[in-house]
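Lecture notes, unit on binding sites. The following record was shown on slide 14. It pairs a sequence with flavin mononucleotide.
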Amino acid sequence: MKTKMHLAFDLSWTHLQGRWCQPGSWTGRTYPDLGIFREIAMIAERGCIDMMFFGDGTGVPSTWRGSPEEAVRWGIGWPRQDMSGYIATLAQDVKNVGFGITYSSTFMHPFYVSRLLNSLDHLSNGRIAFNVVASTRRADAANYGFDELMEHDLRYERMEEFIHVCKSLWASVAPDAFVWDRDTGIVIADPKKVQAINHVGQFFKVKGPLSCVPSPQGRPVLIQAGGSGRGIKASANFADHVFGSGKPIKQKVKHRQELDAELIAQGRDPSKVGILWDVIVVVGETEGEAKRRRELMLTAIPFEAAGAFISHAAGYDFSKLPARFTPKEINEQIAASNASPVGFVHQLGLKIGENTEMTREEFFEYGLRSATGYDHTFAGTAAQVADHFEEEFEATGSRGGFMIAHPQATPRELLNVVDFLVPELQRRGRFRKSYEGKTLMENLAG
Ligand SMILES: Cc1cc2nc3c(=O)[nH]c(=O)nc-3n(C[C@H](O)[C@H](O)[C@H](O)COP(=O)(O)O)c2cc1C
Protein backbone atom coordinates (compact mmCIF):
# COMPACT_ATOMS: atom_id res chain seq x y z
CA MET A 1 0.00 0.00 0.00
CA LYS A 2 1.26 3.47 -0.87
CA THR A 3 1.90 6.00 1.87
CA LYS A 4 -0.76 8.67 1.92
CA MET A 5 -0.03 12.39 1.79
CA HIS A 6 -1.51 15.10 3.95
CA LEU A 7 -2.87 18.29 2.45
CA ALA A 8 -3.32 21.70 4.05
CA PHE A 9 -4.72 24.82 2.40
CA ASP A 10 -3.13 28.19 3.12
CA LEU A 11 -5.41 31.18 3.64
CA SER A 12 -2.72 33.58 4.84
CA TRP A 13 -2.53 35.56 1.62
CA THR A 14 -5.83 34.92 -0.05
CA HIS A 15 -7.08 38.50 0.32
CA LEU A 16 -3.68 40.15 -0.20
CA GLN A 17 -1.19 41.05 -2.97
CA GLY A 18 -4.02 41.56 -5.46
CA ARG A 19 -5.32 38.00 -5.16
CA TRP A 20 -8.71 39.12 -3.90
CA CYS A 21 -9.63 40.66 -7.27
CA GLN A 22 -8.22 37.96 -9.58
CA PRO A 23 -10.81 36.07 -11.65
CA GLY A 24 -12.01 33.16 -9.50
CA SER A 25 -11.86 35.04 -6.20
CA TRP A 26 -15.07 35.39 -4.26
CA THR A 27 -17.42 38.10 -5.45
CA GLY A 28 -20.15 39.88 -3.52
CA ARG A 29 -18.20 39.83 -0.25
CA THR A 30 -15.11 41.65 0.95
CA TYR A 31 -12.54 40.64 3.52
CA PRO A 32 -13.02 40.00 6.44
CA ASP A 33 -16.56 38.76 5.87
CA LEU A 34 -17.01 35.51 7.79
CA GLY A 35 -19.03 34.11 4.89
CA ILE A 36 -15.88 33.91 2.76
CA PHE A 37 -14.23 31.59 5.25
CA ARG A 38 -17.41 29.57 5.82
CA GLU A 39 -17.59 28.80 2.12
CA ILE A 40 -13.91 27.86 2.02
CA ALA A 41 -14.18 25.64 5.11
CA MET A 42 -17.07 23.68 3.61
CA ILE A 43 -15.21 23.07 0.35
CA ALA A 44 -12.09 22.03 2.29
CA GLU A 45 -14.07 19.57 4.39
CA ARG A 46 -15.74 18.10 1.30
CA GLY A 47 -12.23 17.42 -0.05
CA CYS A 48 -11.05 15.78 3.22
CA ILE A 49 -8.32 18.44 3.52
CA ASP A 50 -6.36 18.05 6.78
CA MET A 51 -6.12 21.67 7.77
CA MET A 52 -6.94 25.25 6.84
CA PHE A 53 -3.94 27.35 7.71
CA PHE A 54 -3.81 30.99 8.78
CA GLY A 55 -0.36 32.56 8.87
CA ASP A 56 0.20 35.85 10.62
CA GLY A 57 2.21 39.01 10.79
CA THR A 58 1.05 42.14 12.54
CA GLY A 59 2.90 45.08 11.02
CA VAL A 60 2.13 47.25 8.02
CA PRO A 61 5.03 46.67 5.62
CA SER A 62 6.97 49.91 5.64
CA THR A 63 10.54 49.02 4.69
CA TRP A 64 10.09 49.93 0.99
CA ARG A 65 11.08 53.62 0.66
CA GLY A 66 10.76 53.77 4.47
CA SER A 67 6.99 54.19 4.16
CA PRO A 68 3.79 52.09 4.45
CA GLU A 69 2.20 53.99 1.54
CA GLU A 70 2.47 51.37 -1.23
CA ALA A 71 1.64 48.47 1.12
CA VAL A 72 -1.52 50.22 2.28
CA ARG A 73 -2.48 51.26 -1.24
CA TRP A 74 -2.21 47.74 -2.69
CA GLY A 75 -3.04 45.57 0.32
CA ILE A 76 0.46 44.13 0.72
CA GLY A 77 0.74 41.92 3.84
CA TRP A 78 -1.99 44.02 5.38
CA PRO A 79 -4.77 44.03 6.66
CA ARG A 80 -4.90 40.90 8.79
CA GLN A 81 -7.50 39.95 11.37
CA ASP A 82 -6.64 37.85 14.40
CA MET A 83 -8.21 34.57 13.22
CA SER A 84 -8.92 32.98 16.61
CA GLY A 85 -12.53 34.21 16.71
CA TYR A 86 -13.08 33.12 13.12
CA ILE A 87 -11.76 29.64 13.85
CA ALA A 88 -14.02 29.32 16.89
CA THR A 89 -17.01 30.06 14.65
CA LEU A 90 -15.92 27.97 11.66
CA ALA A 91 -15.34 24.99 13.94
CA GLN A 92 -19.10 24.90 14.52
CA ASP A 93 -19.83 24.73 10.78
CA VAL A 94 -17.42 21.96 9.80
CA LYS A 95 -16.68 18.94 11.94
CA ASN A 96 -13.50 17.37 10.58
CA VAL A 97 -11.16 19.81 8.92
CA GLY A 98 -8.46 21.19 11.24
CA PHE A 99 -7.30 24.78 11.74
CA GLY A 100 -3.74 26.06 11.95
CA ILE A 101 -3.22 29.41 13.65
CA THR A 102 -0.02 31.43 14.00
CA TYR A 103 1.34 33.38 16.96
CA SER A 104 4.79 34.82 17.50
CA SER A 105 6.97 33.48 20.30
CA THR A 106 9.17 36.54 19.80
CA PHE A 107 6.51 39.01 20.93
CA MET A 108 3.76 37.19 22.76
CA HIS A 109 3.51 35.63 26.20
CA PRO A 110 3.18 31.85 26.60
CA PHE A 111 0.55 32.04 29.35
CA TYR A 112 -1.83 34.04 27.18
CA VAL A 113 -1.22 31.93 24.06
CA SER A 114 -1.51 28.55 25.81
CA ARG A 115 -4.80 29.63 27.40
CA LEU A 116 -6.23 30.91 24.13
CA LEU A 117 -5.26 27.74 22.25
CA ASN A 118 -6.75 25.58 25.01
CA SER A 119 -10.11 27.30 24.46
CA LEU A 120 -9.89 26.93 20.69
CA ASP A 121 -9.08 23.25 21.10
CA HIS A 122 -12.25 22.86 23.20
CA LEU A 123 -14.42 24.76 20.74
CA SER A 124 -13.12 22.74 17.79
CA ASN A 125 -13.20 19.38 19.59
CA GLY A 126 -9.46 18.92 19.15
CA ARG A 127 -8.74 20.32 15.70
CA ILE A 128 -6.18 23.06 16.42
CA ALA A 129 -2.57 23.36 15.30
CA PHE A 130 -0.25 26.10 16.53
CA ASN A 131 2.27 27.44 14.00
CA VAL A 132 4.81 29.08 16.27
CA VAL A 133 6.98 31.65 14.54
CA ALA A 134 10.15 33.55 15.38
CA SER A 135 9.28 36.87 13.81
CA THR A 136 11.61 38.28 11.21
CA ARG A 137 9.93 41.56 10.33
CA ARG A 138 10.67 45.01 11.70
CA ALA A 139 7.15 46.34 11.24
CA ASP A 140 5.82 43.53 13.45
CA ALA A 141 8.51 44.15 16.08
CA ALA A 142 7.61 47.85 16.23
CA ASN A 143 4.07 46.98 17.37
CA TYR A 144 5.44 45.18 20.41
CA GLY A 145 7.87 47.84 21.57
CA PHE A 146 11.07 46.72 19.79
CA ASP A 147 13.21 49.19 17.85
CA GLU A 148 15.35 46.39 16.43
CA LEU A 149 14.84 42.72 15.67
CA MET A 150 15.97 40.32 18.34
CA GLU A 151 19.10 38.45 17.17
CA HIS A 152 18.15 35.54 14.85
CA ASP A 153 19.32 32.59 16.95
CA LEU A 154 18.20 34.21 20.20
CA ARG A 155 14.66 34.29 18.77
CA TYR A 156 14.84 30.51 18.59
CA GLU A 157 16.15 30.25 22.17
CA ARG A 158 13.10 32.22 23.19
CA MET A 159 10.84 30.03 21.04
CA GLU A 160 12.08 26.84 22.70
CA GLU A 161 11.53 28.29 26.15
CA PHE A 162 8.12 29.65 25.08
CA ILE A 163 7.01 26.17 23.95
CA HIS A 164 8.48 24.54 27.05
CA VAL A 165 6.32 26.87 29.18
CA CYS A 166 3.23 26.23 27.05
CA LYS A 167 3.68 22.46 27.25
CA SER A 168 4.21 22.62 31.02
CA LEU A 169 1.04 24.69 31.36
CA TRP A 170 -0.99 22.33 29.16
CA ALA A 171 0.22 19.45 31.36
CA SER A 172 -0.33 21.32 34.65
CA VAL A 173 -3.86 19.98 35.06
CA ALA A 174 -4.23 16.20 34.69
CA PRO A 175 -6.64 15.12 31.93
CA ASP A 176 -8.86 13.31 34.47
CA ALA A 177 -8.64 15.98 37.21
CA PHE A 178 -12.13 17.44 36.84
CA VAL A 179 -14.99 15.38 38.29
CA TRP A 180 -17.73 18.07 38.44
CA ASP A 181 -19.71 15.95 40.97
CA ARG A 182 -23.11 17.57 41.18
CA ASP A 183 -24.10 15.66 44.34
CA THR A 184 -21.12 16.69 46.45
CA GLY A 185 -20.24 19.93 44.65
CA ILE A 186 -16.65 18.77 44.26
CA VAL A 187 -14.94 20.01 41.11
CA ILE A 188 -11.53 18.33 41.48
CA ALA A 189 -11.43 15.34 43.79
CA ASP A 190 -7.64 15.20 44.02
CA PRO A 191 -6.13 18.70 44.13
CA LYS A 192 -2.68 17.17 43.50
CA LYS A 193 -3.81 16.73 39.91
CA VAL A 194 -3.40 20.48 39.53
CA GLN A 195 0.21 21.63 39.86
CA ALA A 196 2.01 24.95 39.58
CA ILE A 197 4.84 24.90 37.06
CA ASN A 198 7.06 27.49 38.83
CA HIS A 199 8.98 28.25 35.65
CA VAL A 200 11.86 30.69 35.88
CA GLY A 201 13.91 30.95 32.70
CA GLN A 202 15.91 33.33 30.54
CA PHE A 203 12.81 34.97 29.04
CA PHE A 204 9.78 34.02 31.12
CA LYS A 205 8.72 33.64 34.71
CA VAL A 206 5.41 31.77 35.01
CA LYS A 207 3.94 30.23 38.13
CA GLY A 208 0.98 28.29 36.70
CA PRO A 209 -1.04 26.14 36.68
CA LEU A 210 -3.05 26.94 33.57
CA SER A 211 -6.45 28.23 34.57
CA CYS A 212 -8.26 25.90 32.18
CA VAL A 213 -9.91 22.52 31.77
CA PRO A 214 -7.66 20.16 29.73
CA SER A 215 -8.68 20.24 26.08
CA PRO A 216 -9.54 17.32 23.77
CA GLN A 217 -6.03 17.07 22.27
CA GLY A 218 -4.36 18.04 25.57
CA ARG A 219 -2.37 20.54 23.56
CA PRO A 220 -2.54 21.74 19.96
CA VAL A 221 -0.51 20.09 17.22
CA LEU A 222 2.79 22.00 17.22
CA ILE A 223 4.13 23.20 13.88
CA GLN A 224 7.32 25.14 13.15
CA ALA A 225 8.64 26.50 9.86
CA GLY A 226 12.21 27.63 10.53
CA GLY A 227 14.41 26.97 7.51
CA SER A 228 17.83 28.02 8.87
CA GLY A 229 20.06 25.59 10.76
CA ARG A 230 18.90 27.03 14.08
CA GLY A 231 15.27 27.03 12.93
CA ILE A 232 15.48 23.35 11.99
CA LYS A 233 17.03 22.56 15.37
CA ALA A 234 14.04 24.20 17.07
CA SER A 235 11.68 22.09 14.93
CA ALA A 236 13.49 18.99 16.11
CA ASN A 237 13.14 20.21 19.68
CA PHE A 238 9.36 20.26 19.83
CA ALA A 239 7.47 20.24 16.50
CA ASP A 240 4.96 17.48 15.76
CA HIS A 241 5.07 18.53 12.10
CA VAL A 242 7.10 20.99 10.11
CA PHE A 243 6.34 23.46 7.37
CA GLY A 244 8.98 23.51 4.64
CA SER A 245 9.34 26.35 2.17
CA GLY A 246 8.76 25.86 -1.54
CA LYS A 247 12.35 25.45 -2.68
CA PRO A 248 13.92 23.27 -5.37
CA ILE A 249 13.78 19.53 -4.71
CA LYS A 250 17.51 19.28 -3.88
CA GLN A 251 17.07 21.84 -1.10
CA LYS A 252 14.01 20.01 0.17
CA VAL A 253 15.95 16.76 0.39
CA LYS A 254 18.69 18.62 2.29
CA HIS A 255 16.11 20.14 4.68
CA ARG A 256 14.67 16.66 5.34
CA GLN A 257 18.15 15.24 5.99
CA GLU A 258 19.06 18.06 8.37
CA LEU A 259 15.78 17.67 10.24
CA ASP A 260 16.22 13.90 10.53
CA ALA A 261 19.78 14.29 11.85
CA GLU A 262 18.57 16.83 14.45
CA LEU A 263 15.62 14.65 15.47
CA ILE A 264 17.93 11.69 16.04
CA ALA A 265 20.39 13.90 17.95
CA GLN A 266 17.51 14.96 20.21
CA GLY A 267 16.31 11.39 20.76
CA ARG A 268 13.21 11.63 18.59
CA ASP A 269 11.88 9.31 15.88
CA PRO A 270 12.14 10.97 12.41
CA SER A 271 9.44 8.66 11.01
CA LYS A 272 6.87 10.43 13.19
CA VAL A 273 7.58 14.00 12.06
CA GLY A 274 6.17 14.97 8.67
CA ILE A 275 7.06 18.01 6.59
CA LEU A 276 4.24 19.80 4.81
CA TRP A 277 5.93 21.49 1.85
CA ASP A 278 4.64 24.88 0.87
CA VAL A 279 3.64 24.48 -2.79
CA ILE A 280 1.87 26.83 -5.17
CA VAL A 281 -0.24 25.07 -7.75
CA VAL A 282 -2.72 26.03 -10.41
CA VAL A 283 -4.74 22.95 -11.29
CA GLY A 284 -6.58 23.17 -14.61
CA GLU A 285 -8.83 20.87 -16.61
CA THR A 286 -6.20 21.18 -19.33
CA GLU A 287 -2.53 22.13 -19.14
CA GLY A 288 -3.14 25.12 -21.41
CA GLU A 289 -5.85 26.45 -19.13
CA ALA A 290 -3.66 26.08 -16.02
CA LYS A 291 -0.74 27.84 -17.73
CA ARG A 292 -2.98 30.63 -18.98
CA ARG A 293 -4.23 31.23 -15.44
CA ARG A 294 -0.68 31.19 -14.10
CA GLU A 295 0.24 34.06 -16.46
CA LEU A 296 -2.50 36.16 -14.85
CA MET A 297 -0.47 36.18 -11.64
CA LEU A 298 1.96 38.66 -13.16
CA THR A 299 -0.84 41.17 -13.55
CA ALA A 300 -1.97 40.99 -9.90
CA ILE A 301 0.18 43.87 -8.57
CA PRO A 302 2.49 46.59 -9.92
CA PHE A 303 6.27 46.74 -9.32
CA GLU A 304 5.97 49.21 -6.43
CA ALA A 305 3.68 46.81 -4.58
CA ALA A 306 6.02 43.88 -5.24
CA GLY A 307 8.88 46.03 -3.89
CA ALA A 308 6.91 46.65 -0.70
CA PHE A 309 6.27 42.91 -0.32
CA ILE A 310 9.82 41.65 -0.75
CA SER A 311 11.36 44.54 1.25
CA HIS A 312 9.06 43.75 4.18
CA ALA A 313 9.88 40.05 4.10
CA ALA A 314 13.64 40.63 3.84
CA GLY A 315 13.85 43.65 6.15
CA TYR A 316 15.84 45.42 3.43
CA ASP A 317 14.79 48.45 1.41
CA PHE A 318 15.26 47.22 -2.15
CA SER A 319 14.41 50.68 -3.52
CA LYS A 320 18.00 51.56 -2.53
CA LEU A 321 19.71 48.80 -4.48
CA PRO A 322 22.82 49.81 -6.41
CA ALA A 323 22.74 49.53 -10.21
CA ARG A 324 24.66 46.21 -10.16
CA PHE A 325 25.26 43.71 -7.34
CA THR A 326 25.37 39.97 -6.48
CA PRO A 327 22.76 38.14 -4.36
CA LYS A 328 25.55 37.21 -1.94
CA GLU A 329 26.42 40.86 -1.22
CA ILE A 330 22.81 41.74 -0.49
CA ASN A 331 22.08 38.60 1.53
CA GLU A 332 25.07 39.28 3.77
CA GLN A 333 23.54 42.65 4.65
CA ILE A 334 20.14 41.02 5.27
CA ALA A 335 21.59 38.36 7.57
CA ALA A 336 23.62 41.03 9.42
CA SER A 337 20.38 42.90 10.15
CA ASN A 338 19.01 39.78 11.95
CA ALA A 339 16.31 39.07 9.36
CA SER A 340 16.16 35.51 8.02
CA PRO A 341 19.30 34.45 6.14
CA VAL A 342 17.27 31.96 4.06
CA GLY A 343 14.67 34.28 2.52
CA PHE A 344 14.03 35.57 -1.00
CA VAL A 345 17.55 36.80 -1.83
CA HIS A 346 19.08 33.55 -0.58
CA GLN A 347 16.64 31.60 -2.78
CA LEU A 348 17.52 33.84 -5.70
CA GLY A 349 21.22 33.11 -5.09
CA LEU A 350 20.51 29.37 -5.16
CA LYS A 351 18.73 29.82 -8.46
CA ILE A 352 21.10 32.03 -10.41
CA GLY A 353 24.32 31.55 -8.41
CA GLU A 354 25.06 33.71 -5.38
CA ASN A 355 28.04 35.37 -7.06
CA THR A 356 26.26 36.14 -10.32
CA GLU A 357 26.09 39.86 -10.92
CA MET A 358 22.69 41.27 -11.78
CA THR A 359 21.07 44.64 -12.45
CA ARG A 360 18.30 46.36 -10.46
CA GLU A 361 15.91 45.81 -13.37
CA GLU A 362 16.63 42.08 -13.45
CA PHE A 363 16.18 41.93 -9.69
CA PHE A 364 12.74 43.54 -9.85
CA GLU A 365 11.63 41.10 -12.55
CA TYR A 366 12.44 38.32 -10.05
CA GLY A 367 10.84 40.36 -7.26
CA LEU A 368 7.50 40.59 -9.02
CA ARG A 369 7.56 36.91 -9.90
CA SER A 370 8.36 36.03 -6.29
CA ALA A 371 5.84 38.39 -4.64
CA THR A 372 3.03 37.09 -6.83
CA GLY A 373 4.15 33.47 -6.41
CA TYR A 374 4.55 33.11 -10.19
CA ASP A 375 8.07 31.72 -10.09
CA HIS A 376 7.25 28.87 -7.73
CA THR A 377 3.93 27.95 -9.28
CA PHE A 378 3.41 24.55 -10.78
CA ALA A 379 0.60 24.78 -13.33
CA GLY A 380 -0.87 21.68 -14.90
CA THR A 381 -3.63 19.10 -14.99
CA ALA A 382 -4.53 17.09 -11.91
CA ALA A 383 -2.43 14.20 -13.23
CA GLN A 384 0.62 16.43 -13.78
CA VAL A 385 0.32 18.00 -10.33
CA ALA A 386 -0.14 14.55 -8.76
CA ASP A 387 3.01 13.31 -10.58
CA HIS A 388 4.91 16.33 -9.25
CA PHE A 389 3.63 15.72 -5.71
CA GLU A 390 4.49 12.02 -5.80
CA GLU A 391 8.01 12.72 -7.02
CA GLU A 392 8.70 15.28 -4.27
CA PHE A 393 6.94 13.22 -1.59
CA GLU A 394 9.05 10.15 -2.31
CA ALA A 395 12.30 12.11 -2.67
CA THR A 396 11.75 13.67 0.75
CA GLY A 397 11.03 10.47 2.63
CA SER A 398 7.23 10.03 2.19
CA ARG A 399 6.34 11.75 5.44
CA GLY A 400 3.99 14.71 5.62
CA GLY A 401 2.65 16.14 2.40
CA PHE A 402 1.89 19.57 1.01
CA MET A 403 0.36 22.86 1.91
CA ILE A 404 -1.36 24.44 -1.08
CA ALA A 405 0.05 27.88 -0.49
CA HIS A 406 -0.54 31.38 -1.83
CA PRO A 407 -3.56 30.34 -3.92
CA GLN A 408 -3.99 32.71 -6.82
CA ALA A 409 -7.75 33.03 -6.41
CA THR A 410 -9.94 31.55 -3.69
CA PRO A 411 -12.31 29.70 -3.74
CA ARG A 412 -11.42 28.83 -7.38
CA GLU A 413 -8.05 27.21 -6.56
CA LEU A 414 -9.50 25.24 -3.68
CA LEU A 415 -12.39 24.02 -5.82
CA ASN A 416 -9.94 22.82 -8.45
CA VAL A 417 -7.84 21.08 -5.80
CA VAL A 418 -10.87 19.40 -4.27
CA ASP A 419 -12.66 18.48 -7.49
CA PHE A 420 -9.69 17.61 -9.76
CA LEU A 421 -6.54 16.95 -7.73
CA VAL A 422 -7.98 15.17 -4.69
CA PRO A 423 -9.83 12.51 -6.76
CA GLU A 424 -6.62 11.92 -8.77
CA LEU A 425 -4.57 11.45 -5.59
CA GLN A 426 -7.27 9.18 -4.17
CA ARG A 427 -7.26 7.07 -7.34
CA ARG A 428 -3.50 6.62 -6.87
CA GLY A 429 -4.00 5.59 -3.22
CA ARG A 430 -2.20 8.75 -2.07
CA PHE A 431 -4.97 10.56 -0.23
CA ARG A 432 -7.75 9.64 2.21
CA LYS A 433 -11.35 9.18 1.09
CA SER A 434 -12.75 10.07 4.50
CA TYR A 435 -11.36 11.44 7.75
CA GLU A 436 -10.01 8.56 9.85
CA GLY A 437 -9.49 10.33 13.15
CA LYS A 438 -11.50 12.66 15.31
CA THR A 439 -8.75 15.10 16.18
CA LEU A 440 -6.30 16.92 13.93
CA MET A 441 -3.44 15.12 15.70
CA GLU A 442 -4.98 11.77 14.74
CA ASN A 443 -5.65 12.85 11.16
CA LEU A 444 -2.11 14.14 10.66
CA ALA A 445 -0.52 10.99 12.16
CA GLY A 446 0.96 8.42 9.75
C1 LIG B 1 4.80 27.29 5.16
C2 LIG B 1 5.40 28.42 5.95
C3 LIG B 1 4.58 29.21 6.73
C4 LIG B 1 5.09 30.30 7.44
N1 LIG B 1 4.25 31.08 8.17
C5 LIG B 1 4.73 32.19 8.78
C6 LIG B 1 3.84 33.09 9.44
O1 LIG B 1 2.63 32.90 9.45
N2 LIG B 1 4.37 34.19 10.04
C7 LIG B 1 5.72 34.44 10.04
O2 LIG B 1 6.14 35.45 10.62
N3 LIG B 1 6.59 33.60 9.43
C8 LIG B 1 6.12 32.50 8.79
N4 LIG B 1 6.99 31.65 8.13
C9 LIG B 1 8.44 31.94 8.19
C10 LIG B 1 9.17 30.94 9.10
O3 LIG B 1 8.62 30.95 10.40
C11 LIG B 1 10.68 31.22 9.18
O4 LIG B 1 10.92 32.44 9.79
C12 LIG B 1 11.32 31.19 7.81
O5 LIG B 1 11.11 29.92 7.23
C13 LIG B 1 12.80 31.51 7.86
O6 LIG B 1 13.52 30.57 8.64
P1 LIG B 1 14.48 31.00 9.84
O7 LIG B 1 13.62 31.78 10.83
O8 LIG B 1 14.96 29.70 10.43
O9 LIG B 1 15.58 31.83 9.29
C14 LIG B 1 6.47 30.57 7.40
C15 LIG B 1 7.31 29.76 6.61
C16 LIG B 1 6.79 28.70 5.89
C17 LIG B 1 7.72 27.86 5.05
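Take-home: Residues 249 and 392 are 7 Å apart (CA to CA).
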